[in-house]
Specification:
Blueprint: E1 5-13, E2 17-24, E3 29-36, H1 38-41, H2 44-57, E4 68-74, E5 77-83, E6 87-89, H3 90-97, H4 102-121, E7 134-137, E8 142-144, H5 162-167, H6 173-176, H7 183-199, H8 209-218, H9 224-227, H10 233-242, H11 254-265, H12 312-335, H13 350-359
Antiparallel strand pairs: 1-2, 2-3, 3-5, 4-5, 6-7, 7-8
Helix pairs in contact: 4-7, 4-11, 7-10, 10-11
Length: 366
């Protein structure tokens, strides 16, 4: 394309376009190339409006908006060249997880709200906010894509492709009535996205696109807390205000919405609670041993003696040697009687001899 872009592989396709992964050979970087299907390129009025829209979006510069690098046409092929995002779209994430953790869901909604505010300030209304058009990077950043591509879809095209049919689940009541989409329409659609993230369900279902569109206009959604009791009341109020039937009852601007979302984030836990997980990290209070005497807790380990590591057989040898040494010492003490100087009593009478021996402490000798 234009001797600059190389097609590498097809990433997907929708009712209005086919999406490819490509390479910018001039800047040597990966890009996403979106090519309009032939049935839409034959309508010159649509092509002109598409070009103007693409050029307007190319002026946007926001970290939560997929950047458009180039717009071109060659041999009746009209294409957009956009930033390539490593990751997946939010719809696939919801399908895989069922629901998105509350804090993460609100953070995604806040990022997209900021992106919408930037677009609205530049007089651009997205008109097709849905999870399929929200890309989640590997780092967890939400990026809004596909600005303005579906704004020219008619009632007839709603029944032609699955992609456009899917959009009817997120359109605002005024869009369903065929009225011009304003910034408040984007806020309504984002409300449905947030509803789906925290409940795992769409608020309105029907057998046909028209049936869903009528529900968007007439029916009130089931309260999110009835589907997810863990949802804080304050967050439910935000979602219901975003999804108000009348645009005047919604947030006036995406900035006001962002303020409320940023405020509610502070009240949400960073990590979803895990129940019955004995290995989960917990904060455990310190234990006072004096207050817990008699409890089933094990006592503090006793400091090991240096001799604890001596083998049992060596202990036996040492004991035997000690007993032998004690026996030898005792025998010597028993047999080794000290010498005593014997007084001379030869020729003495018995009485005199006894007296002499008694004076020398030998009176017990028989």
């Amino acid at each position: 394309m234009g001797n600059r872009y190389e097609i590498l592989e097809q990433l997907g396709g929708g009712g209005m376009s086919i999406v490819y992964k490509g390479r910018d050979t001039l800047l040597n970087r990966l890009v996403t190339i979106k090519v309009l299907r032939p049935e839409f390129t034959s309508d010159e009025d649509f092509v002109q409006r598409f070009r103007r829209e693409a050029q307007a979006v190319a002026k946007l510069s926001h970290p939560n908006i997929v950047s458009i690098y180039d717009v071109g046409w060659e041999d009746q092929i009209h294409y957009l060249v956009m930033e390539y995002v490593e990751g997946d779209n939010l719809k696939n994430l919801i399908r895989a997880q069922g629901t998105i953790p509350l804090k993460q869901a609100v953070e995604f909604a806040l990022q997209i709200s900021d992106a919408l505010q930037h677009a609205h300030e530049n007089d651009i209304v997205h008109r097709d906010v849905k999870p399929q058009n929200i890309l989640i990077t590997r780092e967890g950043r939400a990026k809004l894509t596909d600005f303005g591509i579906a704004k020219e879809a008619t009632t007839a095209t709603l029944t032609q492709t699955d992609t456009v049919v899917g959009s009817v689940h997120y359109i605002s009541p005024e869009q369903a009535r065929g009225e011009t989409a304003e910034p408040a329409s984007d806020i309504y659609s984002l409300g449905i996205v947030l509803y789906e993230m925290v409940t795992g369900k769409l608020p309105f279902q029907g057998e046909t696109p028209i049936a869903v569109a009528l529900k968007q206009i007439q029916d009130a959604p089931e309260r999110p807390t009835s589907l997810n009791p863990a949802l804080p009341q304050r967050l439910e109020n935000i979602i219901l205000r975003m999804m108000a039937k009348k645009p005047a009852d919604r947030y006036e601007t995406a900035r006001q919405l962002s303020i409320d979302l940023a405020s509610v984030i502070k009240t949400l836990p960073s990590v979803p609670s895990v129940q019955n997980d004995e290995f989960a990290t917990r904060v455990i209070p310190t234990v006072n041993i004096e207050d817990d005497i008699g409890s089933s807790a094990e006592p503090n380990p006793v400091k090991e003696s240096p001799a604890k590591g001596i083998p049992g057989w060596l202990w036996a040898v040492l004991i035997v040697l000690a007993l032998m040494a004690a026996g030898i010492i005792g025998f010597k003490l028993f047999m080794n009687v000290p010498e005593v100087a014997m007084p001379d009593v030869v020729g003495k009478s018995q009485e005199e001899a006894e007296r002499i021996l008694k004076e020398h402490g030998l009176n017990d000798i028989q």
